[in-house]
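>> Question from a student workshop board

For tomorrow's exercise we were told to take the sequence and the ligand below, predict the bound structure, and bring the output to class. My setup keeps failing. Could a helper post the expected result so I can at least see what it should look like? The ligand is magnesium ion.
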Amino acid sequence: EVILSVRDLTASIDGNPILKGVNFEVKAGEVHAIMGLNGSGKSTFSKALAGHPAYEVTGGTVIYKGQNLLEMEPEERALNGIFLAFQYPMEIPGVSNLDFLRVAYNSRRKHEGLEEIDTFDFEDLVQEKLDIVKMDASFLERSLNEGFSGGEKKRNEILQMALLEPSLAILDETDSGLDIDALKIVANGVNQLATPENGTILITHYQRLLDYIEPDYVHVMAAGRIIRTGGKELALELESRGYDWLLEEEAVEV
Ligand code: ADP
Ligand code: MG
Ligand code: MG
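>> Workshop helper replied:
Here is what the output should look like for this input. Compare the format with yours to find the bug.
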């Protein structure tokens, strides 16, 4: 079953073409890693999929579970099961983490025609999910992301993901300067939450992350295109040889 199908996607920022024809497909049960040098367009790709208003899609098609994703508002994309960590506000003073999670969870339920979850049932459910990220319950009473450490923000992202059970999770780790603990949290979360029914896109320039996650496919993005796709061995080769040889083989100008 195909979850996401991207064909010849082009996108611009402020009129500058960044994505220059991305082709990409995710089937149920697959974990895809997208790697590449800084500035290759990885975050632009994830933001275009999220529907970020600054990223103008200028061509191509994106089909998500049989629907035209490009016609969906960013909120609709989330309600239909696309999870993008960065779409959530960084800090919301005065809103507890628990309240925020409940609102997000209930919007999803409402969209599926279900009633709001009982407050106590929700707390039980969250408690269960806290174990996945090894977080203490006191964490839930804190203001959303206010004063969270990098590792706590990561844990919270994975907690959101565990609750929302997305059909397609897109994790862009590139700019977050993850330490080894945060890497392991992300890796554990991905490993536990990847199921035969959903798909995961892991954007990273850290080969290290792939020491903890076994992706089904590794893609290399350069100059706004996916220039090569392979298995885990491709990531290992990039680690030992760098990117230059590949850019040369594919005649990519960067
Ligand atoms: P990556 O995530 O692979 O490092 P990005 O998608 O962030 O790459 O960036 C791709 C290109 O788009 C870079 O040349 C970057 O400078 C440019 N770019 C990214 N965001 C913006 C922006 N908001 N305005 C203008 N140019 C941008
Ligand atoms: Mg799997
Ligand atoms: Mg990036």
